[in-house]
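Reopening: Prepilin-type cleavage/methylation domain-containing protein still failing for me.
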Amino acid sequence: MAFVLVITGLLVAISVGRASLPNYPRDGSDAQALAALQREVFDAVLEYARRYHRLPCADGNIAAGLDPDGREGAGDQGCGDVSANRLGHVPFRTLGLEAPSADEARLYTRLRYAVYRSGAVDLTSAQPPSWQQDAAPRMLPGDGPYAGRGAFLRALRLAAAQPRDDTNPYLTGDDGPLGTLDCVGNKRPNVAFLVLGAGVRDADRDGDLFDGPHTPLTINSRCFAAPATPTTEHYDDTVIAIGFDRLAGELLTVGRR
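Support: Ran it again with your exact input. Result attached.
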């Protein structure tokens, strides 16, 4: 009996000790929900490009000192000059996505959207007249800033022919086959647009949601890790990006997504 009591006591002690260990959020429900939302936003941008023959600019209200409202641009200025609203919050209202619930709003704070805009070619082009509406503007094919899909495809080809522009979103390596995560020594091509997601933990423990080349993330950040960059002890951000040629291919593909 004494032996049984000793064994029982040890088992209870072990179970209590396990219960007191910290629970690090690595691949939990938050991570899955964020990944699903990030993919939903990316697909919504693709659908917007198919429908309106342009890309939306970022919700840049935070740069203007205003709370993000889910609309592209900032304040009454719309997308503004090509140097503005390249990086910001997700313009979910412009994309026609439903207003987020309280829980989704928390996840949206972990996402950023970046788009290519230059003096040679602005993939957002002119702002549609109805940019202030809550939902995406109701335009018919051919009513967008680019006269149709063909004109937008030509814009993408022109963008692909430009030399790398460090003032626009570009990728670096993946600490693997694509080289080191080095925004100065390993600059890779510009992208048409990307969606960045901060992981569920501050992996590099610097007090900022974003890790690696994304910290500190500001409205002037242009360098992003390659999408294939693995999660490590010090990095758990995710990037979904698409180049100019790949986006052109998506526009030419019917029935996808």
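Residues 16 and 22 are 12 Å apart (CA to CA). If you still see a failure, please send the error message rather than a screenshot.
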